[in-house]
Specification:
Layout: H1 3-20, H2 25-43, H3 56-61, H4 64-78, H5 84-89, H6 100-111, H7 115-120, H8 123-137, H9 139-142, H10 149-159, E1 167-169, H11 176-187, H12 197-205, E2 208-212, H13 215-227, E3 234-236, H14 242-245, E4 250-255, H15 280-290, E5 292-303, H16 305-308, H17 312-323, E6 324-331, E7 344-351, E8 361-366, H18 386-392, E9 411-415, H19 416-421, H20 445-477
Parallel strand pairs: 1-2, 1-4, 2-3, 4-5, 6-8
Antiparallel strand pairs: 5-7, 6-7, 8-9
């Protein structure tokens, strides 16, 4: 076992030690981010962006209580000094380390790292692993920014990103989609060496775009991208505000917008949307299909309510199917996100060359009915997507030859006319749920409660929209 691998494993062990002392994975991954950034700046000779008094060697030379005091003051000061990247990494940074000896152990372990070999030998995987543990540990809300990596890998492989394309994630979270798209391209270009120098620079600095609303998550995303060799700018901000409207048109959008049905009151601040709504997912869906270049493609994780909501929801689905070819919907199993009761899907579509009549038929793959409830006991693996990927075929835009498996199979095709007869409701199932007959196989009570609350939330939102429509009608009649 070489030295770098030893050190990465030491960092894992130290994480477990601190966890036992009450430091959460979320706190640990933040501490690691601050320290890794300072070490990275030294190793990559980019320390000029950090004030001289707070560079890595200054911290290493300190010891004991003085080191801990110095470190905590440094975190505060770097939030408002140095380059923009430094200020983004240290924005509102605080430390949860209480014992000077624990900071000493962390600093000593990271100081031994050889930056370049560490990236190759597991440091990026360590960081990703911590992000996943953090999502598992803090279930409430964590699903908003951490998408299971096996799902991301499947979506990226089906979408087949190419060099030279603008690839966007408007709810970038910790950067999983962009990192995996970069991985896919590098595996097919000998780590970019088959590209010309200009094309290599484009891939490293311009190909990938992202926006993240939550400051803490934005910090983790920046570090995750750097650990995976990406220098692409990912901005803090709100995609559902003017910043999102100014994003460049994309060749490919891969994303998992945050769950939840409300934006905290009022519609989004996007005046370019045809259908104003306070439903985050429906607003993101409009951003995505409007943000594609003609011929551009998207794969998007969305909850069930997007498939069946009436009023504005139905109008947006009709608009989507007019402007794009919505060729495939994957109904995902329950339990794969770190929020109980969330039922989700992946929508695959391609923007048309014109804005009319682009969807002729939509294929549905049911990966939910009669599947195990995924979680810690039954982890989701890449093998669970194998049959779907075979049915999807080798064309990212859904043009491969496909076979309808009938009422007993998981893969079926519905024409646009079929969908119109259902009032454009895309919440389609046809397989008999064998678990429904067995009380022992019903979901846990908290999952059922979460589903009921979700349904009540949707009903409340529809009532709000109906009330707004009636008020608008009243104003017009006055």
């Amino acid at each position: 076992m070489n030295t770098t691998t030893d050190i990465v494993q030491q960092l894992w062990k130290l994480c477990n030690t601190l966890w036992g002392d009450g430091v959460t994975y979320h706190q640990y991954v933040n501490e690691l981010t601050y320290l890794l950034f300072l070490k990275m700046a030294e190793e990559t000779q980019t320390e000029h962006q950090i004030p001289e008094e707070y560079r890595w060697k200054k911290l290493v030379k300190q010891d004991g209580v003085e080191q801990l005091v110095f470190y905590k003051k440094m975190l505060i000061d770097l939030g408002t000094s140095g380059s923009k990247l430094v200020q983004d990494i240290f924005a509102n940074a605080t430390s949860f380390i209480q014992q000077p000896k624990n900071l000493r152990r962390l600093v000593d372990a990271i100081d031994k790292l050889d930056w370049y070999s560490a990236r190759e030998e597991g440091l990026g995987d360590l960081y990703e692993g911590l992000l996943e543990k953090n999502a598992t540990e803090s279930k409430r809300g964590a699903g908003q920014y951490f998408t299971p990596r096996r799902l991301i890998e499947s979506m990226v492989d089906l979408m087949q990103p190419k060099p030279g394309e603008i690839i966007q994630d408007p709810a970038v979270g910790t950067g999983g989609f962009l990192i995996n798209a970069d991985r896919y391209i590098k595996e097919r270009t000998d780590d970019l060496f088959t590209l010309k120098e200009r094309e290599q620079n484009f891939q490293r600095r311009e190909a990938f775009q992202g926006i993240e609303l939550v400051q803490d998550v934005h910090r983790l995303c920046l570090m995750n991208l750097m650990l995976h060799g990406l220098e692409t700018p990912v901005f803090p901000g709100d995609t559902l505000g003017p910043q999102g409207a100014s994003m460049a048109k994309a060749d490919l959008i891969l994303t998992n917008p945050p769950f939840g049905t409300a934006t905290g009151g009022g519609h989004t601040r996007r005046d370019d949307f045809t259908y104003p709504t306070n439903n985050r997912q429906l607003a993101f869906l409009q951003h995505i299909y409007r943000g594609l270049k003609p011929g551009g493609r998207a794969a998007v994780v969305l909850p069930d309510n997007v498939l069946f909501e009436d009023n504005t929801g139905r109008s947006i689905r009709i608009d989507l199917m007019e402007k794009c070819n919505l060729h495939t919907i994957l109904r995902l199993p329950t339990g794969i996100f770190y929020a109980q009761g969330v039922k989700t899907n992946v929508l695959f579509f391609q923007r048309g060359e014109t804005d009319k009549g682009n969807t002729k038929a939509t294929w549905f793959y049911d990966l939910r009915t009669n599947m195990p409830s995924f979680g810690k006991r039954t982890p989701l693996t890449r093998a669970h997507f194998a049959e779907f990927e075979a049915c999807y075929g080798g064309d990212p835009n859904g043009n491969a030859k496909r076979v309808d498996q009938g009422e007993e199979g998981r893969f079926r095709c519905f024409t646009r006319e079929d969908l119109a007869k259902r009032n454009d409701n895309l919440d389609i199932t046809w397989l008999r749920d064998e678990n429904a007959d067995h009380a022992d196989d019903l979901p846990e009570p908290e999952i059922l409660a979460a589903e009921i609350m979700d349904q009540l939330g949707i009903a409340m939102q529809e009532m709000v929209e109906l009330k707004a429509m009636l008020e608008n009608c009243g104003e017009l009649n006055d």
